[in-house]
Amino acid sequence: MAPNETGSRPLFPAGNLFPFFLVTALFFLWGIPNNLNDVLIKQFMKSFEISRLEAGLVQFAFYLGYFFLAIPAGLLMRKFGYKAAFLTGLVLFGAGCLLFWPAALVGRYSFFLAALFVIASGLSFLETSSSPFIAQCGDPETSERRLNFSQTFNPLGAITGALVGTVFIFSGVELNPAQVGALQAAHTYGAYLQIEKLRVIRPYVVLGLVVLVWAILIARTKFPAIADEAESGNRDSGNVRELFRHRHFILAVVAQFLYVGAQVATWSYFIIYAQDYTHEPEKIAGYLLTGNLVALLAGRAFSTYLMKFINPARLMGVYAVINVALVCIGVFLPGWTGLWALLMTSFFMSLMFPTIFALGLKGLGANTKMGGSLIVMAIVGGALYPLGIGFLSEKLQSLALAYGLLLPAYVFIAYYAFLGSKVRLTGQDWERAETAGPGGGV
User: Residue 309: which domain range?
Assistant: First the structure.
């Protein structure tokens, strides 16, 4: 197989490795709360005695934060640059984590949902700014590989979040109806539920403090001028309406909506799937969830290497087709076979988010920041898909069948990878190309 032409090009930005490191670390940090949510769903079902559909509000509140703050994040970047977005995001992220302390003391589910919304608002600023920064911080021909490299640290954060949640939030105490009745008769059941709620305080407060320290480090570091910032005084600042002339960008927004929805829904109910069909206790199910994240990490590292030889879009298309088959196994063969099939989807979904993001931003020019904001808004799929899975599982009385909702997502991603991601020049692009003359480009 002939090497990909980008294989010999430099991956890292010369002279700017420390800012690159600081921003790459953000991918690790925001992976932690993303997968603490999967533990929270199970924990809140127990400590608040709520249904699967109601527990899905954890992801709904979280990803609404992404949706509503993505455009403000893009506008702030256009006016003040990437660094301002990093700092705003970290302050909101840290503050939301610290709000878990009073929320646990009050013991109100709605307070936790509000804290999750604040955390995700901060993450919206971080994701809106970090991915375009990494994509543009270096040779544009290696943007997909560079972004996949940085995104490799996101699963490490996800693994950390799942392990921290399993060890420090799950108590391992799962009461049967007779034990609940005994505690109620002794008037101690309320105290038990309150203790379960308080278990979330320590991991979130520690995370909040770490995040605020990272904000101080970024504030004290000089960041390089990225091309679209350095040239903002000489070039058009962009026009949002122009974005919608780029078919590959519009389809990227749809693909990202479906991908994030599928990813979040898979992990949100994975612990419950494991308990329903393998009857393992919550601690074991939590460790099995961690297996998903290890598979994601392995897939992202392996895929970043393969991209030296295989076109990223084509590789993503093959992975999407494989995931269609794996989801079918999880739907129709519930049990250990279905569980391992769903776990393996994490390996093959590994390259999808950064690759869709990088492909969607190609050729956007001055509209890159706003385009990145709209792709981040598509993360709202993570708010809706878990609610859909929760609703279907209650209506169908089968969580396995509800996982069938993932199939259309991977089918569309395969279409986008093979056909929809091709960049087509707009009229203005042709004018620029003609002005550039032979050897010029867009």
Answer: 17-229+241-424
